[in-house]
Amino acid sequence: MNPNCIYNRQSKVVRALWNFLTSPTGAFLIAVSAILIGYYQFYISRPILKYETEKVTFISSQNDNAYSVKVKGREYQDLYLTRIYLNNKGAMALSGSDVSKIGHDPIRIVIPKDAKMVHYTLDNTATTNAITARLEEIDGNLVIKFDYLNPDYQIAASILHENPDAEFEVTGSALNVNEIT
Asked: 100 in helix, strand or coil?
């Protein structure tokens, strides 16, 4: 077997490959591949925080109630419960140390001024068991503090309030988190 023949075949394959990659079709494929890799790195492989709210009437004066609700020594005729779920829908865990510090933009539940919040608690029945989390009231909002929020883990908070139209939202910033939706 002639070694020049093998070299010529390899040379032809390399030359053909080079010609394809430098052609408009090859350049297009390279560009699309780079865009897809960049999209994965900057959007999909990050922690993606999403929140949902669920509101129920806890007690209403419009009903003929055979019971009453007393919170912190005060009796209420109308009380509403909003449960807020914060989920990590991304591919990476979010460390609590990567969250913006207090005074900057920590992850928090914004309490509307007209909500008339009566009580709040971390809902351990709906929070993933492996999470160490707590809520801290700062400047009228509830700051969510946690150790790690792994993918598909959630933190849930329950808020008792008097205003049936109160809309709660979760906001804040953290390393590699673009927004909380």
From this structure: coil
Phi, psi of 71 (to 5 degrees): -125, 125
Report whether 174 contacts 99 (CB < 8 A): yes
Which residues have a Cβ under 8 Å from the Cβ of 39 and sit 6 or more positions away?
none
Ranges of beta strands (E only) in 22-180 are 49-59, 69-71, 74-76, 79-88, 94-95, 108-110, 117-122, 133-138, 141-146, 148-149, 154-161, 169-171
Residue (of 21, 140, 146) closest to 88 by Cα position: 146
Buried residues in 6-20 as b, exposed as e (16+ CB within 10 A): eeeeeeeeeeeeeee
The pLDDT profile of the chain, 181 residues, written as one tens digit per residue, is 555 555 677 788 888 888 888 899 888 998 998 888 877 766 655 667 889 999 998 888 888 877 778 888 888 888 999 999 999 888 788 888 878 776 688 899 999 989 999 999 999 999 999 889 999 999 889 999 999 888 899 999 999 999 999 999 999 888 777 778 7
User: Whose CA is closest to 128, among 111, 105, 150, 113?
Assistant: 150
